[in-house]
Write a structure and sequence with these properties.
Number of strands of chain A: 9
Oligomer: homodimer
Largest interface: A-B, 53 and 53 residues
CATH architecture of chain A: Roll
Number of domains of chain A: 1
CATH topology of chain A: Pnp Oxidase, Chain A
Helix content of chain A: 10-25%
């Protein structure tokens, strides 16, 4: 078995956010897909280690901000590789609270999708959250979504130890 | 709500195959993601209308062939837009049966991932199948995976009425 095959699967790059009481949090993710058309339903996979996981579990909502290829590591880096439990990831970014109460990022983002969790599935280190789309807006029609491939090759972005295929890369 | 936002999510292009007794079948899909690293777990979303759905339900296995950007519509077209119930989709393609008994496509493919279904989730028109990776091989290291964007823009590929975001495009 060649685990490198799993890296041939194509992904985009996203900031997945949620809230917990008065707190908000967000993290980088590549694992976002639409799984059904009507009602429109999105699926994300989040590491149980992450504070965002705790927030989604409690609030039952999440928002996906779609990162564009205009973003630099200075724009999106603060959302990865460290926990929002004791660090304000939003300190230097422009954001707004959406209708579901979770924040969406405004600068250099293609758009955002708000969801309400309708189901979840335990998957060892990760939980898959399935969300009904409650809001979706394009922020900039001229921007192209950033691919995971671009993130690695152009931005030299690293893999988080909580990524859905971290173990695969190690091998 | 602007449903066009959902088209800003990035996907690859795949042929998802399975078997039912002595029959094999396969279909085009863009909805393939890895959701956890250890054990490596993949997720696909398949329309209940599709014969592949019936095959996966019965056999409990599926294989993902990763389409490269060298493929033309003549290579991958036969796997979409018509049912394998009364048409042999494999007539003009080179394939082999994998260890799980489902076929993987050989020509112009980056590689393939074999899975054993460990869970499924009903999602209205679609079923999400979660599979443990049992085999994964790269067939050609020089090929680049085809993105869904490339499929639409370069190959002028159409959306199946059973796609996970068909309804969204209509709107």
């Amino acid at each position: 078995m060649d685990f490198r095959t799993l890296f041939k699967v194509t992904y985009g790059m996203y900031i997945v956010s949620s809230k917990k009481g008065d707190n908000i949090n967000a993290q980088l993710s590549n694992t976002v897909v639409q799984i059904s058309p009507d009602p429109a339903t999105m699926l994300i996979s989040i590491s149980k280690n992450n504070y965002t996981h705790e927030c989604i579990k409690e609030s039952g909502v999440f928002t996906v901000s779609i990162i564009s290829d205009r973003c630099e590591m200075t724009d999106i880096g603060p959302f990865g590789f460290r926990t929002g439990r004791n660090y304000d990831k939003f300190a230097n970014c422009s954001y707004e609270l959406g209708k579901n109460g979770a924040p969406y990022i405004k600068d250099k983002m293609c758009g955002y999708i708000e969801c309400e969790v309708i189901n979840s599935h335990d998957c060892c280190s990760h939980t898959v959250f399935i969300g009904r789309v409650t809001e979706a807006e394009i922020l900039n029609h001229d921007l192209q979504p950033m691919t995971y491939d671009f993130y690695h090759k152009e931005l030299k972005g690293k893999l988080s130890k909580n990524a859905t295929h971290y173990h695969a890369e190690e091998k």
